[in-house]
Structure formats: C-alpha cells, structure tokens
Write a structure and sequence with these properties.
Length: 244
Amino acid sequence: MGITFADNLEIIHTNEFFIASVQAISDMTATGRLNSETAEHSDKTSRICQVLGYAAGLETDTNIALAVGGELHDTGKEHCLSIISSGQLPTAEERMVIEEHPKESKGFTEKLFASSRALFIPRTASLLAGVHHGLHKIKAHNYPPIETLGASRRELALLKKIGPILMVADKVQALTGRGRSYREARLIGEGLVIREGNDGIYDAAEYACEQVIAFDPHLNLDASRVAELIIEQSEFLEQNSLAA
C-alpha cells in the first residue's frame, strides 16, 4: 500500500529542514522584519505545493524540498519591507526593487542552511527560492536564465520538473488569497477580476498555468486538475502553521 496524503504530510511536517524554514519565517514575522501578509502567503503557497507535489507522485525528499521552497520563496522581500509595508501601491521603480526578491530569497536560504546546504533538500529549496519568480514573470528581464543558477545538469532537470509547481502554487495563492497592502487584490491580466468561490480558483489556476506554459509549451499542466486538488484539500490549505 502506497503512502497516503496524510502520511506524506506527517513526513514533511516533521522534517528538520521544513521545521527550520517555518521557524525562520515565524521569527522574522515575530520581530516585525517580514510582514504577516507575506508570511501567510508563503505558508499557504507551501501547502498548495504539498498538495500538487503529492498528486504529481514526487518522491518524499523532493516533495519536502518543494514544501521548504514554498515556505522560503518570499523571504527575500525583507530587503524591500519599507515598500510592501507602506500600504501604498508601489511605483514603477519600487516594483523593480520588489522584483529582485528571488535573488535575495536564494541568498537567505543558503545562509539559513549554511551547514547543510550541500544536502539535497536545502540545496533544492534554495534553488527553487531563487528561480520561482523569474520564470513566470514575462515582463521581468533582470533575471538570469535557469541555466545560470550554478546548478548541475541533474539539478536543472529537477528544477524544470518541480519549479512549475511552485510557480503555479505561488500565483494561484496570490490571486485567490486576501489582498496585500502593496498590490490590488485579485487582479490578473488586463484587469480581469477573479470571481469569489470555486469559480475564482478555476480562473486563477487557468491563468497561472497559462503564464507558466508560456515559457515551456511542453509542460503538462492541467488547470482544471490543479483547481480540483485545491478545492478537495481546502481544509488543509486553510490551516495556518504560522499563526501568532
């Protein structure tokens, strides 16, 4: 009998690197250095990653790395905290500063796991944190391509397999979660407003998958299945391990 979703969650949530990543965000939130909106988004993005990773049949260590990457993918926003905490929509120049956060996130994770960064889980999580944003931001031109991250050929192959899961999870959560003070809530494309309820989840999944597939038409991303999985596991996704 295979590992169930509940078994998979137990393995992930008792993993030392996952616990360290959650604690890192919790500590940053507690000291006011990373705002609670971003911490909540990261936690829920990680949970969507776990759902999609399990459904994709990822090996346990790979799914743990994906979950850790989801928790830490926005820690680089600490460098632009004054912008995202201002309560105002950012200017074009400020948006460029925010867009730099994946590089900062990768650096943060490497420092967090300094003593074990050569190991599979922290190494993969760090690479994911650095690549999650650049690949699906069509307008962004200031990111190096995935091949220049200093990853091995084997790591590149893995990133191209699981990176899209984090990218979709990040986008879906951002679109369907509560609005954040530094951006308008539920706006996609040219001003299309995400609808409330399950329809909104399908809208967000379709848009997120389209954004990611735009970079690689060969990716096998089923937007309807993504939405169904998120709805099926809604109770798990609404839990918040970062609650104060």
